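Thread: quick sanity check before group meeting

JM: Hey all, I'm pulling together slides for Thursday and realized we never actually wrote out the predicted structure for the chain we discussed last week. Dropping the sequence here so it's in one place. If anyone has concerns about the input, flag it before I start.
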Amino acid sequence: MKVSIALEELGLPYEPHLVSFQTNDQLSPEFISLNPNNKIPAIIDPNGPGGQPLPLFESGAILIYLAEKTGQLMSKDPAKRYETIQWVMFQMGGIGPMFGQVGFFHKFAGKDFEDKRPRDRYIDESKRLLAVLDKRLAGRQWMMGDDYSIADIAIFPWVRNLIGFYGAGDLVGFANFPEVARVLAAFVARPAVVKGLTIPS
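JM (edit): ok, ran it. Output follows.
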């Protein structure tokens, strides 16, 4: 969702392709030629650096590339640029893995495990990460202040999934993080986010 949201925010023309895990599309030679890690998302920019096609995988790398290609969604000021990248990496290394594990243990196969210690470890870490976000967002409109950026696009689809798709809002005490809730509401109200969340249909 992050990449489709970014493409919609940037107004770039693109052609989405559904990669169905039910039919193992991610293991096809065509897809593996784009992403040897056989995970979504992956893109090909036919007009990459030097006018050559550029395949890319990993959502964080794609977000940084699209921001730099268009000069949008990331400050050109070097310090702010690196600060933005820092929060993208915060999502990649912390929020994504931890919220995903909460989803596994709460919604999927993990709920059948009698030993709740692994689940509780991920719940506690997710609470800690939400507290970091809540503190960061106090007095700020977005992660980078007044400027909406790829940091928001990286983080808030995961927050949305944690409390929506995974249904873990009560589990992580989401009501205790009003700043995160405020910014999530603003994020999902953006027209490009509304569109991006439906792609591919």
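AS: nice. The mean pLDDT is 96. The radius of gyration is 17 Å.
JM: adding both to the slides.
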